Amino acid sequence: MISAFVLLLCSLSAFISYQTWHILVRRHKSYQDGCEPPTRLPGIDPIFGLDFFFESLRLQRSDRILATINSRFQKYGRTYELRALGSPVIFTIEPENARAVFSTNENHWGVAPLRASAMTFLGRGIITVDGDEWKRARNLVKPNFTKSNVMNFAPIESRLTELFENIQSGQQIDLQSSFLRLYMDFGAEWVFDETFSHADMKVFEADFDNCLSGSGLRLALGPFAFLVPKTNWLKSRDVVRSLANKYIEQALCSISPEKSQTQGRLSFPRYLADKAISRPEAIDQVLNLSIANMATTAIHLSNCLFILSRRPDIWQLLQAEVAALPNFTFDSLRTLKAMRNLLLEALRLYPIFPNLSRVALCDTTLPTGGGPLGTSPIFVPAGTKIVPSQMSMGRDERIWGPDAAQVRLDRWDEGDLERRAWHFMPFGYGTRACLGQQKSNMEVSYILARMVTRFERIESRDAREWVGRMRVTTRNANGCLVALYKKEGVGDAAVADA
Ligand code: HEM
């Protein structure tokens, strides 16, 4: 008993000595080469940062973390630092810093230290690894994004027709839940090239969601993730991985290697098998692609509808624009200007990834944000987490003007978009940029085009503001509560070519 206590005491004092030494070395380096440290948030515990850690957990649980990060920028400036669980975390809305992280010094930054252990249900794939392992994963995943693989609206259309049939005119519905469910089903079919049975989908949906929530919490806890009870989470992880295995097996049985060469559309499980990828790795790769696919487009779509339910003028604008189309194809949908601008406004105000974080893999620098004026370069020791806040950049009045908080479609027709590149990166930037951007944009446009054609109007049934619930992706904590009113004499199925 005593020796355990002595061991604990020794470990604690070794940790404190290491942290103090680290802070002193860092302070020294912070002032070399013109570098100055950024504003440090005043806290009670300067070594472990336990106060900030517990506060961010509380804020995350009550869905107030994004609003707090935003208000700290107002109070402490455009770049600030705090210490959480013994490691520095830098928050920034300086475009120059975003450029350094995602472009100029891209190789100095990674995601694996953040994600690999927090998202074990995904294994090692494109979302969770860095370096050569990531390059290999990206090469394996990329063939899914050929035109023929992403240009097919038919599988969405059948599910959309069913959803429309179930919508009663004027009755309240949560479109966020409806589209998350639709996308789970459609997303699984797209990734596995197999349709899940109804019973399996129900289980997959619940356990996948449990894995996402558990991973969100573990991402927030960082090195202390081991403190969270695991039993439930591990059970969900095993269920998700075993269902993934089942449907990979099923896909391999139903598509022979010869058929996969001729059918036009890529079957990802068959492709991985043809490349001699082992089954455990194939499960990792399909689940990494699934997480990127399943809870992104559905939330974006729901955010667009959240805006539309409060802006009948934009709904009517879309109706007029869509009515002029001869059919709903990739090429025709691409020409819709108001549609494009609505999608951009929704991503600006309600980004799916509001904090696109990275960890410094080596000692590096940021070009600006240090010193009392917030303009000096900053020395960044390896292990520092950086949070370029997409949410706060999207609402920054210095970039978007005094009406930054409002939805205004024609802001996207003014000036050059290039100038805003580093303020607005909803799909990431650089070599790790999103592979599914075009697929997602086209699907959201298609579904919205179908909705404005089928429904006369949409009404909000919720006076509350949008509240970001940040887990792995960020959705509206209140859902998207609306009522839709059907047009007389229009059927639920597509009225034009899909
Ligand atoms: C509105 C919808 C979407 C948004 C806002 C979005 C956003 C992003 C962002 C910000 C990243 C970069 C992450 C980082 O740098 O750490 C990313 C990566 C990725 N996205 Fe998306 N995404 C969306 C939809 C999709 C869809 C539908 C798919 C697949 C069908 C997809 C596949 C991927 C993949 C595979 C990556 C990893 C790229 C890499 O690391 O090389 N995304 N996405």
Helix content, binned percent: 40-55%
Q: Low-confidence spans: pLDDT under 50, at least 5 residues?
A: none
Structural class: alpha+beta
Integer average pLDDT? 90
Q: Which cofactors or ions or other ligands sit in this model? A: protoporphyrin IX containing FE
Main pleated sheet = 6 strands, mixed
Care to count the β-strands?
13
**What sort of overall outline do the alpha carbons produce when their principal axes are compared?**
globular
Q: What is the gyration radius calculated from CA atoms?
A: 24 Å
Q: DSSP strand (E) fraction?
A: 5-15%
Binding site for heme: 434
Organism: Pseudovirgaria hyperparasitica
InterPro entries: Cyt_P450, Cyt_P450_CS, Cyt_P450_E_CYP52_fungi, Cyt_P450_E_grp-I, Cyt_P450_sf
Protein name: Cytochrome P450
Account of the protein in words:
One of its GO terms (molecular function) is iron ion binding. Its cofactor is heme. This is Cytochrome P450. Keywords: Heme, Iron, Metal-binding, Monooxygenase, Oxidoreductase, Signal. Residues 1-18 form the signal peptide. With 498 residues, this protein is α+β, with helices and mostly antiparallel strands. The protein has a domain at 18-110 and 355-425. It has 21 helices and 13 strands. The strands form 4 sheets. A 6-stranded mixed sheet has the order 1-2-3-9-6-4, sandwiched between helices. Helix 10 packs across helix 11 (231-254). The longest helix has 29 residues, at 2-30. The protein is globular, with a radius of gyration of 24 Å. The mean pLDDT is 90. The site of protoporphyrin IX containing FE has 23 residues, from helix 6, helix 14, helix 15 and helix 21. Protoporphyrin IX containing FE (HEM) binds next to helix 6, helix 14, helix 15 and helix 21.
